[in-house]
Amino acid sequence: MIKVGIVGATGYTGVELLRLLANHAEVQVELITSRSHKGTLVTELFPSLRGFYDLVFSEPDNKALAQCDLVFFATPNGTAMKRVPELLAKGVKIIDLAADFRITSQATWEKWYGMEHACPELLTSAVYGLPELNREKIKQAQLIANPGCYPTATILGLMPLIKHNVIEPSGLIADCKSAASGAGRGANVAGLMAECGESFKAYGVSGHRHLPEIQQILSMIAGEPREITFVPHLIPMIRGIHATLYGQLTTDIDLQKLYQEAYIDEPFIDVLPENSHPETRSVKGVNQCRIAIHQPQNSKRVVVLSVIDNLVKGAAGQAIQNMNICCGLTETMGLDQVALMP
Amino acid sequence: MIKVGIVGATGYTGVELLRLLANHAEVQVELITSRSHKGTLVTELFPSLRGFYDLVFSEPDNKALAQCDLVFFATPNGTAMKRVPELLAKGVKIIDLAADFRITSQATWEKWYGMEHACPELLTSAVYGLPELNREKIKQAQLIANPGCYPTATILGLMPLIKHNVIEPSGLIADCKSAASGAGRGANVAGLMAECGESFKAYGVSGHRHLPEIQQILSMIAGEPREITFVPHLIPMIRGIHATLYGQLTTDIDLQKLYQEAYIDEPFIDVLPENSHPETRSVKGVNQCRIAIHQPQNSKRVVVLSVIDNLVKGAAGQAIQNMNICCGLTETMGLDQVALMP
Amino acid sequence: MIKVGIVGATGYTGVELLRLLANHAEVQVELITSRSHKGTLVTELFPSLRGFYDLVFSEPDNKALAQCDLVFFATPNGTAMKRVPELLAKGVKIIDLAADFRITSQATWEKWYGMEHACPELLTSAVYGLPELNREKIKQAQLIANPGCYPTATILGLMPLIKHNVIEPSGLIADCKSAASGAGRGANVAGLMAECGESFKAYGVSGHRHLPEIQQILSMIAGEPREITFVPHLIPMIRGIHATLYGQLTTDIDLQKLYQEAYIDEPFIDVLPENSHPETRSVKGVNQCRIAIHQPQNSKRVVVLSVIDNLVKGAAGQAIQNMNICCGLTETMGLDQVALMP
Amino acid sequence: MIKVGIVGATGYTGVELLRLLANHAEVQVELITSRSHKGTLVTELFPSLRGFYDLVFSEPDNKALAQCDLVFFATPNGTAMKRVPELLAKGVKIIDLAADFRITSQATWEKWYGMEHACPELLTSAVYGLPELNREKIKQAQLIANPGCYPTATILGLMPLIKHNVIEPSGLIADCKSAASGAGRGANVAGLMAECGESFKAYGVSGHRHLPEIQQILSMIAGEPREITFVPHLIPMIRGIHATLYGQLTTDIDLQKLYQEAYIDEPFIDVLPENSHPETRSVKGVNQCRIAIHQPQNSKRVVVLSVIDNLVKGAAGQAIQNMNICCGLTETMGLDQVALMP
Asked: Under CATH, domain D149-308 is a member of which superfamily?
C-alpha cells in the first residue's frame, strides 16, 4: 500500500482526492492537513465521507508528511513551494494541484502569480503532469505539476492539430466555460448562488493565469512559440468545463481519423463519433475528456469541443492518474467510475 | 415627491428597494449609504441599475439622513436601533427591514438576537408592518418593523384560521422553504453555488429567529399564546419562499370561502381556486402572496400553501407597501409589476 | 456471474441500474430492452456509458428475458405485471422498480393506479423490497416490489418510532421534497428546466400514489392501521429526496439512542450525530439514507430529517441491494461509492 | 388605445408579450389565440398573470384578428406566413416573432426551414425589425420580421465594427450561449431539467438556422458578403444570451469610443465602461443589450461581449419596441423596467 498525505484537504480538490481514493486498492490516505480545521474530523466537514474515513485534520508538518510515500498539495497557489524542497530531499514524491510548478519561466510565473517564487530552481525539473503528453517523464518524476483545469481541456483538444502541424499558427481561440467549483471553496460574494446562479458571464478577458500555461505547453508541442486568445466564462452549475476551440486548417485532412488515432491508446480520452456534441454531464465525476471535432459548412475552420470535469480530469482525477503512473501502478486504478447521469 | 434614504443599500433588500423605487411616481431616492462602498457608484456594484440611478454610496450620517422624509434600514440586525431614536426625534419616518423592532419583549429579543437592545423603550411603540394585519396602525406609524420573510408567508397563510378560531391551538406546523437570497449577500462558504446548489436541507430545526416573531404575532391574533413547530429549509434557487402549513380543524367549515372573504379587499393577497398548488415563480419579483387551501382526504387536517418572493412581499416590496400606507400614498403605487415567468 | 436483463432501460432508473452495475463484480448485464429505441446502441443514448457497455436495445421478448437469472423492470406502472407471471414460471427472479406489486390490496391498487391488475394473485406473494424491514423475506423472494422513492425515505425515517410504539398514532405528517428526476424521463412541459427551474411548489396534496404505499407499510409495522398526511413538493434540482417527518412522542425516550440502535447493523442507513441537518448532496449518487432526529424546543414534538438519492436508495441502488440479497451475494456489493460532493 | 392580438400566446414569447403589455399605457390586448387551449383562461395556464388579464384563449380566426390594429405572431415557424397576406390586406400591422419573414431569399429560407414558403412575395418587403439598424423603415412598416435572439445579440455586438469597416472580413466568430427558454415551451426530453440542468454543451455546430440570418444582416451592413462561424451552446438556466464575438482589427482605433458614439442615442443599448464583463442577469427581464469591448493582450484581436434577455430584447421586448415605433408611440413605452437582480 502506498501511503499518501493531502495538504489542504478542505478545498474542493482535496475532498475530491478523498472521494476518489476511498476505494483505491493500493493507496492508504495517512494524513490530511488543514490549519483552519485542525482537530476536526473530516466527516464532520464532509458527511459524504462518513463510513469511509475516520481521519482528523492536523496542522501541516513536514516531519509527518515525510512519512508518506507521496504528498498531494491541494493548497492555494504559493503554498506548496514552501514545503516541497524539504520533502523532495526526504525522498517524498510530490504532486502539486496548484500552479506553483506549472510555469517553467520564473519571470513569467512571478508576473502572473504576483509573488516571488520560493524555489525557482525546481521550475524546470518539475514535470508537467499531463499523461497524454508526458507519460514517460511522469514515470520518473519526483515532482509533478498537475495541470490547470482550463489548460487540460484546451491542450487535449488542440494537441493532435498542433502535433501534426495542420493548423495555422495564429488565430487560435479557446472560448472556455467553467462551473462554479472552479473558483474554489473560499467564502466570497461572487460565488454565492444568488450571485452566479441564473447568470452567465465572461471574466478575465484581459488575461487569466491559465493563459501563459496554455501557451507554454502549446509552444512546447509546436516546437515554436504559439499564442492563443483565451476567454473564460462562468457557467451557473457546479462541475464541468467545456472548451470550444477554434483554428484554421492549413490542409485537407480527415480530422476524425487524426484524433481517433492520436488518442487510440489513451484510457481517459474519448473521441466521439462525427457530428457529436459532448455534454459536460457525460463526464460528471469521472476522469474522462470527451472530444468532438467539427468543420462547420465544410470550411477550413475547425471547431473542437472538449469537455472534462474540472475537479476530476481537471484536478484530483488527473493527480491520481499521475500518482498511479509515477508509483508504478496501473494507470486507471481507482478511476473506473461511470459518470453520474442525470 | 417623498425623499427617501436607504441605509445599507449594498445587500439584497437594499438593491431590491432601489429596483422597485426606480419607477415609483412619488418617491425620490436621495441618499444611499454603505460604509464599505463609500464613494462607489451604485451602478458599478449593480449594473442592472444603469440608466436609473447615478447615486454614490456615502458614509451613513444622521444629519444627512435627517433630510429625508423616510429612511429604510436594509442593514444587518442591530444596526438600525443605534440610529433610530435620533432620526425619530428629528421627525423622520423609519422602516426597518431587519429585526430590531419586530419583537415586543426585550428579553425575548435579546435572547434570540444575542445582543443588548439599544433602545428597548421603542419596542412596544414600533408597529409590526404587516398591512393585512395592522393597516390602521401603519397609517399613523413613525417607526415600522418590516416583518421577516418566513413570518410573512406563515402568518398570511394562517391568519384566517386563527382569527376565526377554527383550528386547534396546538399542533401547528410551518414547514418552510426559502431560496438562497434569504441568507443575504455576505461572503460565506455555505452560500456558495457549489455548496447549496443541487442540494436541499433543513436548518435551524432547534430554533430559528423567526420562530418567536411568528409565535408573537399568531398569539396576538389569537388573543392567547400560540406555539408552532417551525422548520426552515434551503432551496437551491435564488428567490422565493414556500410555506406548507399544517393544522387541525375544530369544525366543519368552507375554508375556500373563509379565505376568499378574509382577503377579498387585499390587493396583494391572492387566494387561488380550490385544489391549486402555487409555484414560487408565480410571484417572482412581485409583491404578492398566493395562497391555496387543502383538506387532503377530506379529513380535519388542513394544509395551507403560501408563497411569496422573499425579497419583495418578504422584504423590500412590503417595505414600500408600508411606506405608501404611512405616507398617505395609494397602497399599490410602484408595486404593479407582473411576475417574471419563466 | 449472474445474468441480468433490464426491461425499459431508457428511463432514469434503467440507466442508473446500468451505471451501478457497470462495476459490479458478480453481475453481467445480458439484455436491455426498449420498444422505442430498438436497435440503438445504449452508448448513443447515454454517452456517459461509453467504454462500459456495447449493448444494443432490443424489443422486449419473454423468451430472451427467460435466459436471464434476474430481470429488472424499470418500466412505467402497469408494464411489468403483463410479463411477470410467465417469467416467474420459467424460474426467473424479478425485481420491479415500478409500482405493480407494491400494494397488497387489489382494490386499493386499482383505485390509485387507474387500471385493472393483470395478475392480482401475485400481489400478496410479492415481497416489498425494503431490506431494513424485510431482509429475511427478500432472501427467499422470487418477485420483489422495489419500494417507491418517497416511501423509502419516509418509512426509514419513521420505522424506529413506530416499531417501538413511542409515537402517537394520529397526526403523522410527511412533508417530502423531491428533485425533478423523480418525474421520469418522459417528454412533458412541467418538467422543462424553464418551467421547474428557479421555482418550488407542492403537488398532489389531495392524494399521491405513494400515500397508500406508505400507509400500508406503516400499518404493517404498527400492527394496526396508520394514517399519515403526505405532501410532496418539487425541488429545482436533479437528484435527491428530503423527507421532513413530524410526530408527537407519547413518552420520554432517548431518540438518538433509539435510532442508532435500530440501525446499527444496517450498511446503508446512517444516523447522524445529534443536531445534524442532512443535505441531499451527502447521498448524491449513493445507496445511503442519512437520518437526523430533532426535538425542537425540547417538546414532545419529534422532527425526523431523512435524505436519500431518489434514483439510488430510492430506486436502482435499492434494487441492486435486493438483487444482492436474493441472489446470495454480499449485500453491499457494487454499492460502495462515495457521494459526489460538491 | 391600440388594439392588439397575439396568435400563439401559450409559448414563452407569447406570455412574455402579455407580461410586458400588462402595464403598457397605450395598448389593450384584445385577443389571444391558441388551438390547443381554446376556452381556457389565460390565468389558469399562467397564474402569474392573475389580476392583470381575464382573457380566454380562442381559436385563431382571421376575421377576429382583423379587428386588431396590430397582431403579434408568437407561433412556431411556418404559421404566420399562412395568415399574414389576408391580414395585411385588411390593413392590420403584423409583427412576426418567428422566422417566417427574416430571410429575404426564398431559396435560403426554404433550405434552412425545410418547407415551402406560403407567401414568398412578401419576403423582400418585410422589414427586419432591429431598430438600431432599421428604425426609419420600421416606422413605415406594415410587416415586421422580429429578429432571432442569437442574431440580435450578435449583430448589435458586431455592427459598429462592420459599419466602420475596421475589422477583417474573414475569421469572424460568434461563440454564443443561450438559456433553456430559447428552445420554447414544447414538451421534449432534451429540455427537461434532469437533462439540461447541471450540464453545458454546444449544439448545431454544423449549421443553425440563425446562421443565414446573421450572415444576411452582417452582409447588408458591410455592403458585401460576410461569413461567420456561429456556435450556439446551451446554458443550464432559464433566461439570457451571452455572445462572445471574435474578430481581427485592420487598424488602430479607440474601440470604446467607437461603440459609445455608435450607440449614444440608443435607449436600449448600454456600452459598459472599459474592462467590463456583462452578466446576463444584468438584463434579466428587460429590453436591454449590454456590451463590453476587449482587446486582450493589446493585440489586434477584438473580443466583444454582448448580453440580452433572449425573451425580451431577443423576442417580446424587441417586438414591443417595434410596435411602439411603427405605431407612432414613444419607443420606450412599457419597456422601462429594471432587471431582476438577484
From this structure: Dihydrodipicolinate Reductase; domain 2 (3.30.360.10)
Q: Is C233 exposed, middle or buried (0-12, 13-18, 19+ CB in 10 A)?
A: buried
CA distance C26 to chain A (A): 16
In B, minimum Cα distance to D281 occurs at: B48
C200 contacts B235? CB cut-off 8 A: yes
* Helix D316-326 vs helix D12-21: crossing angle, to nearest 10: 50
H or E segment and range at residue A5 = strand A2-7
Domain C149-310 sits in CATH at: 3.30.360.10
Instruction: List, for residues A204-232, the tens digit of each pLDDT value.
Output: 999 999 999 999 999 999 999 999 999 99
Q: For B308-317, how does the pLDDT look when each residue is reduced to its tens digit (9 = 90+)?
A: 999 999 999 9
- How many angstroms separate the CA atoms of A130 and A268, rounded? 11
DSSP string, B244-285: EEEEEBSS---HHHHHHHHTTT-TTEEEPPTT---BGGGGTT
Q: What is the pairing mode between strands B241-248 and B173-178? A: antiparallel
With CA atoms as reference, the chain D residue closest to A240 would be D199
Q: Which of residues 4-63 of D touch B (CB under 8 A)?
A: 12, 15, 18-19, 22-23, 46-52
Contacts of D180 in chain A (CB under 8 A): none
Predicted ipTM beyond 0.85: yes
Amino acid at B318: Q
Q: Is 90 exceeded by the pLDDT of residue D297?
A: no
Q: Which residues of D touch A210 (CB under 8 A)?
A: none
Domain B2-125: CATH architecture, name and number where available:
3-Layer(aba) Sandwich (3.40)
Q: Which residues of chain B have pLDDT under 50?
A: none
Sheet holding C127-128: strands in order across? C27-33, C2-7, C70-73, C93-96, C143-145, C127-128
Per CB-CB distance under 8 Å, the chain A contacts of D284 are: 198-199
For D309, the closest chain A residue by CA position comes to: A199
Chains near A (3 or more Cβ pairs under 8 Å):
B, C, D
Average pLDDT, chain D: 97
What stretch(es) of chain C map to CATH 3.30.360.10?
Answer: 149-310
Q: Do B199 and C277 touch (CB under 8 A)?
A: no
Q: What is the pLDDT of residues A261-270, one digit of tens each?
A: 999 999 999 9
pTM score, whole prediction: 0.98
Percent above pLDDT 90 for chain D:
99
Is position D149 annotated as part of the catalytic site? yes
Instruction: Give domain D2-146+315-326's CATH number out of 3.40.50.1820, 3.40.50.720, 3.30.565.10, 3.90.580.10.
Output: 3.40.50.720
Instruction: Please state, in angstroms and rounded to a whole number, the distance separating the CA atoms of residues C322 and C334.
Output: 12
Domain(s) of CATH 3.40.50.720: residues in chain B: 2-125
Is the confidence at residue C17, as pLDDT, over 90? yes
What is the pLDDT confidence band of residue C218, given thresholds at 50, 70 and 90?
very high
Chains that touch C (3 or more CB pairs under 8 A): A, B, D
CB contact under 8 A, B248 and C171: yes
For residue D107, the tally of other CB atoms under 10 A from its CB is: 10
A69-96 residue pLDDT tens: 999 999 999 999 999 999 999 999 999 9
Q: How far is A238 from chain C (nearest CA, A)?
A: 7
